[in-house]
């Protein structure tokens, strides 16, 4: 597979509750529409950067397929949305669950500075097909915590791009994070969270891998 350097995004749109097994572990119903939230661009960090957070926070992992927008798109149908996708990258929506639970809105647990690693390149859309199924894996200190396939997405990449484009214009470089499969720490009994020194590896078949170390301070 060839890769292309990913441009900086102006918009980062994220979808939650988009794999059936993750929906089940949260005790929610399958949504009729995508469950969306946004991040600022400075929430993102590099594929091998340390993730620095306050000590004592409930830090969780969320492996995600990421859509990179290639052309401006607005009010797109499925075919137009598909044509607007430049390619696919890897991300991990590292989440501060204790902050996320403070209110019904997820934003404050999802948008901490430099906590969302994303690959700095992408694989062109013409070379890979997430609908056909790509293995997505998250490991913590070498132990598999998440393993699924992108074929299990409730709303696939084209559906998400089409839906988002109905209310906001997407431009080249913008990112759409498509949601995480089951196996997050919040869904474990008892819940398990990341600690200082833990290494999180996020990999999607045919696209690439992230490797990030957790650093706690304070």
Explain this structure to me?
It is a single chain. This protein is an alpha+beta fold. The protein has a single domain (4-217), classed as Fumarylacetoacetase-like, C-terminal domain (Fumarylacetoacetate hydrolase, domain 2). 14% of the residues lie in helices and 34% in strands. Strands 1-11-8-7-14-2-3 form a seven-stranded mixed β-sheet. A five-stranded mixed β-sheet has the order 5-16-15-12-13, with no helix packed on it. It has a two-stranded parallel ribbon with strand order 4-10.
CATH architect. name: Alpha-Beta Complex
The overall average pLDDT, rounded, is 96
Strand order of the biggest β-sheet? 1-11-8-7-14-2-3
Helicity level, as a percent range?
10-25%
Number of strands: 16
Helix and strand element order: EEHEEEEEHEEHHEEEEHEEE
* Poorly predicted segments: none
**What's the CATH first level?**
Alpha Beta
Report the biggest beta sheet as strand number plus sense, adding barrel if it closes: 7 strands, mixed
Secondary-structure class? alpha+beta
What is the terminal separation in angstroms?
42 Å
Shape: globular
Total count of domains: 1
- CATH superfamily, please? Fumarylacetoacetase-like, C-terminal domain
Classify the fold: give the CATH topology.
Fumarylacetoacetate hydrolase, domain 2
Number of helices: 5
* Rg value: 16 Å
Please report which band the strand proportion falls in: under 5%, 5-15%, 15-25%, 25-35%, 35-45% or over 45%. 25-35%
């Amino acid at each position: 597979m060839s890769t292309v350097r990913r441009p900086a995004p102006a918009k980062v749109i994220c979808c939650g509750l988009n794999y059936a097994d993750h929906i089940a572990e949260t005790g929610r119903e399958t949504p009729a529409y995508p469950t969306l939230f946004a991040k600022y661009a400075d929430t993102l960090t590099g594929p091998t950067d340390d993730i620095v957070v306050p000590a004592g926070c409930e830090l969780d992992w969320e492996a995600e397929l990421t859509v990179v927008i290639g052309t401006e798109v607005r009010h797109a149908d499925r075919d137009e949305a598909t044509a607007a996708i430049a390619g696919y990258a890897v991300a991990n929506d590292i989440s501060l669950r204790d902050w996320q639970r403070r209110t019904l809105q997820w934003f404050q647990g999802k948008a901490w500075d430099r906590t969302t690693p994303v690959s700095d390149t992408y694989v062109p859309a013409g070379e890979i097909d997430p609908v056909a199924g790509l293995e997505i894996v998250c490991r913590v200190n070498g132990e598999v915590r998440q393993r699924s396939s992108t074929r299990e997405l409730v709303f696939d990449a084209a559906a998400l791009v089409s839906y988002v484009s109905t209310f906001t214009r997407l431009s080249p470089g913008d990112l759409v994070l498509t949601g995480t499969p089951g196996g997050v720490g919040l869904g474990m009994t008892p819940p398990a969270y990341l600690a200082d020194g833990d290494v999180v590896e996020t990999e999607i078949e045919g696209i690439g891998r992230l490797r990030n170390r957790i650093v706690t301070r304070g």
